[in-house]
Amino acid sequence: MANWSLSQLQPVAYRWYEAAEKFLGPNSLDADADDNWFDFAEGWDKVKYPGEGGLMAMLLERAKQSDLPRVAMRYRSDRIRLLIALCRELQEAVDRIDHEVWGDAVTEAYEDVGDQAERVIQKRLRQGR
User: Fold this and answer.
1) Taking a C-beta distance cutoff of 8 angstroms, is the pair 104, 96 a contact?
2) How far apart are CA 101 and CA 124, in angstroms?
3) In whole angstroms, what separates CA 33 from the centre of its chain?
4) Per-residue pLDDT tens digits for 92-117
5) Gap between the Cα atoms of 71 and 92, Å rounded
6) Packing angle between helix 54-65 and helix 78-113, nearest 10 degrees?
């Protein structure tokens, strides 16, 4: 699906909407099927990691195997608890990716202008930027 065109994805988005509505109940979704499609189509180009196996499958498996976050215990549904655990895994993955990107930036900056650039980047890391 990662390489599909929007015209190929449209029926999938509509089927997803129908399944979600059936699962959650009528009138439980904020958007109608067309609004959902428009939102999906607008966001598709922004997807960095399509959910076909790979990273998402690994993170879902990790979420299933890990201890639940405390906030997940506020809910009774195992599906909601798993969703919360998956959100945690996704956030940790993003944090790791950001750290790797920053680490690469430090290396490149050091190679270009020496340890003064490294000190500037390290300062920004400590400030959370």
Assistant:
1) no
2) 13
3) 23
4) 887 776 666 556 555 555 555 555 55
5) 16
6) 120
Distance between CA atoms of residues 100 and 89, nearest Å: 16
Nearest of 68, 113, 105 to residue 89 by alpha carbon: 68
- The 10s digit of each residue's pLDDT in 46-56 is 876 665 666 77
Amino acid at 91: Q
Query: What is the model's pTM?
Result: 0.42
Contacts of residue 6, defined as CB under 8 A and 6 or more positions apart, other chains included, come to: 41, 44
Q: How long is the chain?
A: 129
Give CA 75 to chain center in angstroms.
Answer: 22
Please work out, in degrees rounded to the nearest 5, the angle formed at the alpha carbon of residue 24 by the alpha carbons of 20 and 25: 110
**pLDDT digits 0-9 by tens, 7-19:** 999 999 999 888 8
In this structure, the number of other CB atoms found within 10 A of the CB of residue 13 comes to 19
Q: Which residues of 14-51 are buried (b: 16+ CB within 10 A; e: fewer)?
A: eeebeeebeeeeeeeeeeebeebbeebeeebeeeeeee
